[in-house]
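Each record in this resource describes a single protein on a pair of labelled lines. With that in mind, the following record should read easily:

===
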Amino acid sequence: MGLAASAGAEARAGRLAARILAHRWLWVALALLLALGAGWSASGLWLQPDARIFFAEDNPDRVALDAFEGQFARDDNVVIMLEPPGGDVFAPAVLALIGDITERAWQLPFVRRVISLTNIPHIEAAGDDIRVRDMVPDPAAASPEAAAAARAASLGRPDLVDKLVDPEGRYSAIHILLRVPRIRPQEEIPQLMAEVEALRAAVAAESPGLRMSISGSVAIDNAFATAGMADAKRLLGPMLGVLLLVIGLALRSVLAVFGVVLVIVLAALAGLGALGLWGRPLNSITVLAPLYIATLSVGSAVHIFAGVRQAMVESPDRRDWARLALARHMGPITIACVTTAVGFLTLNFSISPPFREFGTIVAIGVLAALALTLTLLPALVTLLPLRRHAEPATARALMEPLAERVIRGRRWLFPGLAGLALLAATGISQIRFEDDFLRYFDESFQIRRDIDHIEDRLVGLNMLEYPLESGRAGGINDPAFLAQAAGFVDWLRAQPEVRGVRSVTDTLKRLNMHLHGDDPALHRLPEDAEATAQALFLYELSLGYGMDLSDQINVSRSAIRVTASLPEITTAGIRDLEDRAARWLAANAPGIETRPTGVSHVFMLISQRDAREMLLGTGLAILLISGIIGLAFRNLRIGVLSLVPNLVPALVAFGIWGYATGAVTLAVSVVAASTLGIVVDDTVHFLAAYARGRRRGLAPEDAVRGAFRAVGMALAVTTAGLAAGFAVLAQSGFAVNGDMALLSGLTITVALLADFLMLPGLLIWLDRRREARHARVA
């Protein structure tokens, strides 16, 4: 097959290995400097509490969101839902409690407005004028009559029902609007949420039986930060334990395990140090990068120690152990680490900044692990008092029966497994792009339990925002524009996905009614622009601090904001609603310019946008990785051949994922590119071992047997270590990390099966075919 280069390749590798070992104390000193430098650089890292880190500034959906918030306001918020034991939020005692919590909420940091059932503005007629007061002026002294009036007024307002109170009056929400400076968000947001939780604890102690659920954008931001850090703390111990167990069982040497652990810890520290030098904070994705680096670094170290174990049989000199192991494995290890780094670097095609940073950090960590594996680890082999095992490792014998079965069954294994792979890959047709940032947290998180509890009873955080543009300053007073806007609001309320709609048109209808003696027949929009402007002026003049309409009407009064609440909607569902809304607006409000936006909108569409970009990244990774392998073996055909066992795992894994869940989130969309470099590792080591056998003149079948004996057990161990590490990471309750780890683990497991069961038959078939062709020519 022309695998590998000249017969002198191994000799050159041996000379390079000897030169590396001649400077063993230098590598120890450099490793110490790496630890000190990376540790210093990483010491300044902080965790960024912001759900919007997933949106790049040039993301068109983010651009539209920024423009929308520039027109109206970006309000950070906390939502507290109360569920009283008696099931009646309009009971005088409960209204008193709501009023008390409202007052306490004003004492929280960064508050600009608190909206509750007791202080929501209530409009009353006063002759030809209006009077605006709190819904319950004195909650602490609310009488049964005042409570009954509040019930009737509140449940009769569509802008309050399902937002502040459910239709039966059993649950009520308090909305706390904030302006967080975000100068030091790593301190501001945790401090704010700590005070919110303290308020919950205090109220719970004073009011037994009352249930308080908390959500809101600030609570979500805090959860994004704490989820990643909690995962890192919770999973670090189990992951290291699993890796140590796998390595210990494979190497059966405490000192060898120490060497591997030293390499993976230093590599992980190098990744964190690079992030510190980059000046970027940690986030809910990059906080797990050290665990990924540690998991991915195990394989190369195990291959070195597996080579040391083989060299022990040939020589009693520990320098020979290190030299032979390094000479035989440095080539495949280098190719494997470089291709892994390439795979993760292609995450820079992602439209989401955390995944770009994650890919870069992991790539740096893997390359650091490569350098440490080729320098520090051989040096440790010569310095540590490793016990010699003069007999061949018994584990190698386990590979011989497998090799025989694979060789004997190659004629049906390859087509049979190819057929199964094709069948599994058809599950890709079941994949749909779905993202819901509220479901990134599983039920182990209090924030997820609170979100679900609130959304089952009131509107949640999934909102679709429509800035309705009139096209000119002051245009919102135009009766024709308002009529079209009100018609759109009514249409939205009639849609099955929509639970509630908020719009200033509802306020204008109530104002018009109250300005005309509370005549229900006049619960409609004012008839002319002057009447509209006057009604809004009188209303805003009567409002208290922080209660103006700046979050519903822009400064130039050219646009109004319409907010639709969408509980538990899917990405497909929001797309369908947007398309229907666009058609309705085109047919019924051709003069209105608008584009849907909102945080939920951007999150729900990001996986679809990212998948398109990652297809390009994956394609580039395929070309680069196959080219690297072809150049390394000096045979481009081998680069192409390597794609078979390397593409099959991703296709099978995504097919299984499609059948099992069907949903591809933002995290899952980057897995193909990132794992492509990982799965190449086993292929490269098997190809290198096969090539050595062929260079020595072995028949293809014997070369396969030799490859199984030389690297089979090491491949099984490293895959087991990787799979176990990813299995631990898959226990993350944060779906972005858990899904990525689960699919990665599945992919590399399938990759080992492809390398053991499909690749040998393919190699034998190609070499036998080549020999037959040469024989015919001769």
